[in-house]
Design a protein that fits this description.
Largest sheet: 2 strands, antiparallel
Distance between the termini: 12 Å
Structural class: mainly alpha
CATH superfamily: Sodium:dicarboxylate symporter
Shape: globular
Bound molecules: aspartic acid
Helix content: over 70%
Strand order of the largest sheet: 1-2
CATH class: Mainly Alpha
Number of helices: 19
Order of helices and strands: HEEHHHHHHHHHHHHHHHHHH
Number of domains: 1
């Protein structure tokens, strides 16, 4: 371990983000509309797009996301088992689960109501003349009974293989409870899992150290092909969603946090920086899960017994940012197609979007699939999604950052209310920073 300045990794990640966006935007300017620049060299012609965008950026970016995803199932399984075993009284699980689920659903409903009000006020779709040129198939919203049945895995290994997070959570909880009930044998298994947990968390920190390269390549690749100039008619829609997302993260969350815990919300926002950048770069709450977990436990001081449960649950069922996009999109599409929605339609949208977010994994673009369900419920044309799909990538990145911020906030509230929280760690601005900086020369010393 080194004694480097403690903020160095965070600084490197922020620099990587800015550099990635700048390089990508420069390449976008140099090669608009997916064109290419070919540099003739002595022996061969060098394609900038082939070498950088489809080469280095694509490979490093994809490898980085895959390595994060690789950790998700083992991390959730192992830390949830440790969390359940360490709860002295496993009957508390029901109360913790109830609080977390209620907070997740309420914040999502607040988010979508706020987003729809803002959209109705600004009317981003009024006077817009657009024709949908993409077709979109809607899926049926799952019923509550279906969601409940599907939470129980008939084969846990299949749940692991498919990364079905709710099923993994249920299996890990049952397994953890049984360990706690198994006396001496249970203690031996529990201590093995504690060791596994240390090793897996170490792997997370190892990956954090290559994160600046991953973040740079992901963002440079994305910004080469995303251009704000082409947004045209959609700029108003884009801005309404964007502003609603920013307000939700910087006003609603801090106010809620302060009101429910009394903690300083500025510290919370500051500590969320790294996690939000990961979410922004990967567009996936799931892939960001290892980082959210590390931030919640090591930087914010929430005990693993709570975070191991609420963070994966949040990555799966809590999508405030996604709900915000869906609220604005519904209003926008209704305005473009000149459909008047009634109050009960709006309530229906809130209900469907909140329920649809349960059981839908946090992966890129899933918000649009859920939007199809929402539109269907109120009789709006699902093809409307074709109108907004062009600007969805950037919004997906931003809303994912909001989604993980919501997961962390609820984790903090539940942790504090259950007394499973260390306020000293929370208030220490350098908490958790040192372990992020791994000196690989340690390997030689061991
Ligand atoms: N990408 C989002 C997430 O992973 C979900 C979505 O809105 O598409 O949280």
């Amino acid at each position: 371990m080194t004694n480097k300045p403690s903020s160095s990794l965070t600084t490197r990640i922020v620099i990587a983000m800015i550099a990635g966006i700048s390089v990508g935007s420069f390449l976008q300017w140099l090669m608009p509309d997916q064109s290419d620049v070919v540099v003739p060299l002595y022996l061969f012609d060098l394609s900038i797009r082939g070498l950088l965008v489809d080469g280095v950026f694509e490979v490093v970016g994809k490898v980085f996301v895959a390595s994060l995803q690789m950790l998700v199932v083992p991390l959730v399984f192992v830390s949830l088992i440790c969390g359940t075993c360490s709860l002295k009284d496993t009957t508390k699980l029901g109360r913790i689960g109830g609080k977390a689920i209620a907070l997740y659903l309420i914040t999502t409903a607040v988010a979508i109501s706020f987003a729809m009000s803002l959209a109705l006020f600004i009317s981003p779709g009024e006077g817009v003349n657009m024709v949908a040129n993409t077709t979109f198939e809607s899926r049926e919203a799952p019923s509550l009974a279906q969601v409940l049945i599907q939470m129980f895995p008939s084969n846990p290994f299949q749940a692991f293989a498919q990364g079905n997070m709710l099923q993994v959570i249920v299996f890990a909880l049952l397994f953890g409870i049984s360990i706690a009930l198994s006396g001496k044998a249970g203690e031996r298994v529990a201590s093995l899992f504690e060791d596994f947990s240390v090793v897996i968390m170490r792997l997370v920190t190892v990956l954090m150290n290559i994160a600046p390269y991953g973040v740079f390549c992901l963002l440079a690749g994305l910004f080469t092909d995303v251009s704000i100039e082409t947004f045209g008619n959609l700029i108003k829609y884009f801005l309404v969603v964007f502003v609603a997302l920013v307000l939700h993260a910087t006003v609603t969350y801090p106010v809620l946090l302060k009101a429910l815990t009394g903690l300083n919300p500025l510290i919370f926002l500051r500590k969320m920086r790294n996690t939000a950048i990961f979410a922004f770069s990967t567009s996936s709450s799931n892939a960001t899960l290892p980082i959210t977990m590390e931030t919640a436990t090591k930087k914010m001081g929430v005990k693993n017994s709570i975070a191991s449960f609420t963070v994966p649950l949040g990555a799966t069922i809590n999508m405030d940012g996604t709900a915000i996009m869906q609220g604005v999109a519904t209003v926008f599409i209704a305005q473009v197609f000149n459909v008047d929605l009634t109050l009960s339609d709006y309530l229906m949208v809130i209900l469907t979007a909140t329920l649809a977010s349960i059981g839908t994994a946090g992966v890129p673009g899933v918000g649009l699939i859920m939007l199809a369900m929402v539109l269907d419920q109120v009789g709006l044309p699902v093809e409307g999604i074709g109108l907004i799909i062009g600007v969805d990538r950037l919004l997906d990145m931003t809303r994912t950052a909001v989604n993980v911020t919501g997961d962390s906030m609820v984790t903090l509230i539940v942790g504090k209310s259950e007394n499973q929280f260390d306020e000293e760690v929370y208030n220490d601005l350098n908490a958790g920073q040192k372990i992020e900086d791994i000196d690989f020369s340690d390997l030689k010393h061991n």
